[in-house]
TrEMBL record:
Belongs to the acyltransferase 3 family. One of its GO terms (molecular function) is O-acetyltransferase activity. This is Acyltransferase family protein. It comes from Rouxiella sp. WC2420. GO terms for cellular component: plasma membrane.
């Protein structure tokens, strides 16, 4: 794994050789260069961070665990459950991509692109190794040829096993953003229209696969249809941060409005899913209204950056929770399976989810220095 990380570091050095030091940086506009001079004049720039973004990420990471822990296993969900599985809880991942795009702009300005990619690829190598056991399901297929198994394993590694699809999608979205950064800066309005259309195409693909009972979600759950639109939005927010912060807008009203739209869409979606016979999924991954709520929540964080709920540990814990939760859910489920409990499957899964969250928090807080090395 160390060799692989070193190999990718060399690759990054080739592709991003102009971003290793500030003296060699290339800029797409005078404004970008001026922004670099501005942030370099801030003595404490490196230690300043948006606590609100980190805190919201932590809250969203908990919703991801709840989704994967038991909510996604609820067949024929009630409308209340649908508000979560087809609404508010699936706002988490779009928010993550927006945050990543926002920080990526600052990464380019500070000329740390190579370092950023090395870190992301190293993280993916670590966690894909941790979750290699999930590939056993492919190896144990009895009705697949060796070549078919090889293809499925290769596809899983390239697109990301289980929830790790986020990282390959992040890499794809960031590469597109890096290559098109000049266009994004110069033709922002056109780019916003294009990424909105791409997102809607992704939603249409999601619906199509749901209606034909297909689990091949990699067709839309990827760096192009899912990652790029949200990542580009974050990049644009960062590029126009000064303008956004100077505007006096009642974001509470906009957040409320977008939340009402999500409620309406989630009720319709839940009704349609419950009407399908033999549906393999009980929720959508992409919805038309989630980008709107994610964006306004993020802008709210930009406006009020001081929200802190865990004394500066929010960023570490949110990332660790996201990467590790499937592992801990599986381990605790294995333990409970060996013990006869007079519970329903739903009650058992809810208890397991609670145990997993507590365990992850404890490990993250007690072994925080070790955890930093793998996220």
């Amino acid at each position: 794994m160390l060799f692989a990380a070193q190999f990718f570091e060399k690759i990054c050095a080739v592709f991003f050789e102009n971003t290793i030091s500030q003296g060699n940086c290339t800029f797409n506009s005078v404004e970008s260069y001026a922004y670099l001079l501005f942030i370099n004049n801030l003595a404490d720039y490196k230690i300043v961070k948006n606590n609100s973004i980190d805190s919201v990420k932590l809250l969203f990471s908990i919703t991801v665990v709840i989704m994967h822990g038991f909510l996604l296993d609820v067949r024929h969900p009630s409308y209340l459950t649908g508000l979560l599985t087809n609404g508010f809880f699936i706002t988490a991942v779009p928010f993550y991509f927006i945050v990543s795009g926002y920080l990526f702009y600052k990464t380019i300005i500070k000329c740390h692109v190579k370092k950023w990619y090395v870190h992301i690829i190293r993280t993916y190598l670590i966690w894909s190794t941790v979750y290699a056991y999930t590939l056993l399901n492919i190896i144990q297929l009895t009705d697949a040829s060796p070549s078919r198994k090889f293809y499925l394993i290769l596809r899983a590694e390239l697109t990301g096993v289980v929830h790790l699809w986020f990282i390959p999608s992040l890499i794809t979205a960031s590469l597109l953003c890096y290559l098109l950064r000049g266009v994004i800066e110069q033709k922002t309005k056109v780019v916003i229209v294009i990424i909105a259309l791409i997102w809607l195409l992704g939603v249409a693909l999601n619906w199509r696969l749901l209606l034909i009972h297909s689990l091949n979600c990699f067709w839309y759950k990827n760096g192009f249809f899912y990652g790029a639109p949200m990542f580009f939005l974050g990049f644009i927010f960062s590029r126009h941060e000064t303008t956004i912060l100077s505007r006096v807008v009642d974001f509470k009203k906009w957040i409320t409005f977008s939340a009402l739209l999500i409620i309406a869409e989630s009720l319709i979606t839940t009704s349609v899913i419950n009407s399908l016979e033999g549906a393999l999924a009980n929720s959508m991954d992409m919805m038309m209204t989630t980008p709107l709520l994610s964006s306004f929540v993020f802008i709210g964080c930009m406006k009020k950056p001081g929200l802190r709920i865990l004394n500066g540990m929010e960023r570490l814990l949110s990332t660790f929770i996201y990467y590790s939760h499937i592992l801990f859910l599986g381990l605790i489920l294995w333990f409970f399976s060996a013990v006869n409990m007079p519970w329903s499957n739903l009650t058992r899964d809810m208890v397991i989810t609670g145990f997993a969250l507590v365990l992850i928090f404890i490990i993250g807080l007690v072994f925080k220095n070790k955890v930093r090395q793998i996220i």
